[in-house]
C-alpha cells in the first residue's frame, strides 16, 4: 500500500530461531540432554571408568575361574605376579578372584539401596508436596527427625542388633545383604524426599497441572502422569549420588567388622582383612581401596554431568 511503512525485521528473522532460545527442530529432549551431557568431559570419563569396572566384575569371573576360597599357604602374601595378577592374602587366596566377586556385591548393594531410598523418598516427597497442609507438616517433621539421627552410629547399631536374627532367617549371605541394603536405603531417603517435595510445590501450580485438574484428572493421575515425570531430573541426580553413598556405607560397615562375614569378600571386607598387613603386603589394601575410590569418584562425576544436562536453566545457555 502506498505510503505505508515497511515492518521492521523481527529478532528471529535477523538472528534465527536458535538465537532467541527456540528449541532446535528435529531434536528430542533426550538428545538435547545427551548433547549437554557430552560437554561435561569428566562425566564421560566417569561413564567409561564405571562401565569398565562393572564389565570387569560381571564378566571377569567367566574368564578368571580361580575359586575365591582356594587356600595355598605356600603363596600367602605374594605380590602381584603372572600367577596372581593382584597378589594373594594371608591365606594364599587369589585377590583378583576375591575382588571380582566382591565387586559384584558392592555394586549390587549400591544399586539396590539407591532404589529403596528413591522409592521411599519419592513417595514421601510427592505426598508432602502435593497435598500440603498437615500432611506436608507431618511428613516433613518425620523427615527432619530422621535427618537429625547420626547415620553411621545408627547403621552400626541396627546391623549389630539384627544381623544374627537375619542370618538365621535368610542365610548368612542373603540375610546380611538384605539387612544392609534396607538399612542404608532407610537412612538415605530424606534428601530425596525434600528434593521431590520442593519440585512438587513448584510444579503443582503450573499451567499444565491446572489444566489437567480442570479437565477432571484426579490426584493420582496428576501426580503420576503430569508432575512426577517433570521432577525426574533432580531425582536421577540424587539417585546417582545415593549409589556412591551406599557403596561407601557398605565398605565402612565391612571395614568395621559389621558387614558381610569373612567368607564373603566385599571390597570393604578385603580392606578390613588387610589392615594388619600394610607394612609387608600393601597390595592387599591398595587394590580394593583403589576400586572403591574410582567407583565413587566416577559416580560423582556422572552425577555432576547429569545435573548439568537435566537442569532446565541451562537449556537456553548451552
Overall description:
The protein is 69% helix and 0% strand. The model is unreliable at 1-23 (pLDDT under 50). It starts with 10 loop residues before the first helix and ends in an 8-residue tail after the last helix. By secondary structure, the protein is mostly helical. The chain has one domain (29-66, 87-314): MetI-like (MetI-like fold), CATH 1.10.3720.10. α4 (95-131) runs parallel beside α7 and α4 (95-131) crosses α11. It is built from 13 helices and no strands.
What does this entry show, briefly?
The chain is mainly α and about 325 residues long. It is built from 13 helices and no strands.
Give me some keywords for this one:
globular, MetI-like fold, mainly alpha
Low-pLDDT stretches are 1-23
Supply the number of helical segments: 13
Given the helix and strand composition, which structural class is it?
A: mainly alpha
Q: Into which percentage range does the β-strand content fall? A: under 5%
Tell me the quaternary state: single chain
CATH architecture: Orthogonal Bundle
Protein topology:
Layout: H1 11-15, H2 29-38, H3 41-63, H4 95-131, H5 133-148, H6 151-170, H7 172-186, H8 189-203, H9 207-214, H10 219-227, H11 232-255, H12 267-274, H13 283-310
Helix pairs in contact: 2-13, 3-4, 3-13, 4-5, 4-7, 4-8, 4-11, 5-8, 6-7, 8-11, 9-10, 11-12, 11-13, 12-13
Amino acid at each position: 500500500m502506498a505510503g505505508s511503512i515497511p515492518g521492521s525485521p523481527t529478532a528471529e528473522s535477523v538472528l534465527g530461531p536458535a538465537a532467541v532460545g527456540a528449541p532446535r527442530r528435529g531434536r528430542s529432549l533426550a538428545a538435547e540432554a545427551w548433547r549437554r551431557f557430552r560437554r561435561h568431559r569428566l562425566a564421560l570419563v566417569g561413564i567409561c571408568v564405571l562401565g569398565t569396572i562393572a564389565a570387569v566384575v560381571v564378566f571377569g569371573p567367566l574368564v578368571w575361574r580361580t575359586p575365591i576360597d582356594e587356600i595355598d599357604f605356600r603363596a600367602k602374601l605374594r605380590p602381584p605376579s603372572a600367577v596372581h595378577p593382584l597378589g594373594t592374602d594371608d591365606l594364599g587366596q587369589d585377590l583378583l578372584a576375591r575382588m571380582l566377586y566382591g565387586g559384584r556385591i558392592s555394586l549390587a548393594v549400591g544399586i539396590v539401596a539407591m532404589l529403596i531410598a528413591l522409592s521411599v523418598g519419592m513417595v514421601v516427597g510427592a505426598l508432602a508436596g502435593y497435598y500440603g497442609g498437615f500432611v506436608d507438616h507431618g511428613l516433613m517433621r518425620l523427615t527432619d527427625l530422621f535427618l537429625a539421627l547420626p547415620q553411621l552410629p545408627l547403621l552400626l547399631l541396627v546391623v549389630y542388633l539384627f544381623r544374627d536374627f537375619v542370618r538365621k532367617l535368610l542365610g548368612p549371605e542373603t540375610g546380611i545383604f538384605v539387612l544392609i541394603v534396607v538399612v542404608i536405603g532407610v537412612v538415605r531417603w530424606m534428601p530425596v524426599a525434600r528434593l521431590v517435595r520442593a519440585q512438587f510445590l513448584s510444579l503443582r501450580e503450573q499451567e499444565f497441572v491446572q489444566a489437567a485438574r480442570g479437565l477432571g484428572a484426579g490426584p493420582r493421575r496428576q501426580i503420576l502422569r503430569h508432575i512426577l515425570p517433570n521432577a525426574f531430573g533432580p531425582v536421577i541426580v540424587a539417585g546417582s549420588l545415593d549409589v556412591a553413598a551406599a557403596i561407601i556405607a557398605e565398605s565402612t560397615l565391612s571395614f568395621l567388622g559389621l558387614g558381610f562375614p569373612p567368607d564373603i569378600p566385599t571390597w570393604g571386607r578385603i580392606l578390613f582383612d588387610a589392615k594388619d598387613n600394610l607394612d609387608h603386603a600393601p597390595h592387599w589394601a591398595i587394590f580394593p581401596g583403589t576400586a572403591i575410590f574410582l567407583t565413587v569418584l566416577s559416580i560423582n562425576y556422572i552425577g555432576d554431568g547429569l545435573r548439568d544436562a537435566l537442569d532446565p536453566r541451562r537449556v537456553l545457555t548451552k
